[in-house]
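Dock S-adenosylmethionine; give full complex structure.
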Amino acid sequence: MKNNRASQTAYTVLQGVVHTGRQQATKSLVSPEKMAACLTILNSSGEGRRRLRQLENPVLSAGLLLLQRLLMPGIARHYVTRKLAIEEYVRSSIAGGAKQVVSIGAGFDTLMYELSGTHPSLTCIELDHPATSQQKRLAFASEAPANLHLYPVDLSTTSLVETLAQTPAFDPDARTCFICEGVLMYLAPADVENLFAALTEVTSAQLQFVFTAAPEISSPNTNATWLLKRYLHRLGEPLKWTIEKEDIHAFLASQGYGATQVLDGRDMRGQYLPHLPSGPFHLGEFVVACAPLHRE
Ligand SMILES: C[S@@+](CC[C@H](N)C(=O)[O-])C[C@H]1O[C@@H](n2cnc3c(N)ncnc32)[C@H](O)[C@@H]1O
């Protein structure tokens, strides 16, 4: 992570969502509201506008597709399907009584913005590295609903417990759904374990946690290529915590959690892209929903 600039991987995810939402075969997966929010964010910075120009210029856009094929075939479709899986889970958590949602490493994801608009009594909190958080704040400026709170934090230097304790909007007694999408793999293993411990420490109420995890780039269970490793190093965002899907239950148990749902690439493709059974689609990163084992 380069400290003084917004996360390049956060821009890449946003660019992938816009690209997928503009393709005939996949446009129904990105709602007009989500597309509008993504464009607001991209249009608010020089880097975002550069990413949009890449999509709109046929030569640059062909280059992007080639890069995607070389690094992670079908990753843009994966971004959209993992977001749909997470959104479904979070909405069911809200329907089940969650009063606040906390997105850790929210990047330029738009779910919290969308939820805060449609659920005025829901507290929506986003935490991200200062440069990225500040860019998002600028993007939404006066448009951000009053129940959407964006807080800057570097989780490699400040603990989640400390951060949420100093976050006035966070209610430690409210039933909470935590999200950590596309982030844990960029944290050191010790920081990942601290994060699981922190969630049970910061709230006394029921909690649910939905996150994504990925195996090593050399794993037979991912179609990410070895070039990706070099690329992420160059961006200053190398993968630090990786795990195989088959090991996730044991890992969660060691942290005092149990999984309620594990969706891998094949599951998400079957669920959201049944009309596109072939063609590039990233298989590697998977979505996990879990809750502490010993809490009512
Ligand atoms: C791949 S992006 C994912 C963004 C978003 N969750 C999504 O899926 O669209 C990874 C995010 O993790 C954040 N991140 C990485 N390391 C972090 C740290 N040490 N503290 C806070 N945020 C961090 C980055 O700023 C970035 O927004």
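Observed: The chain has one domain: 81-292.
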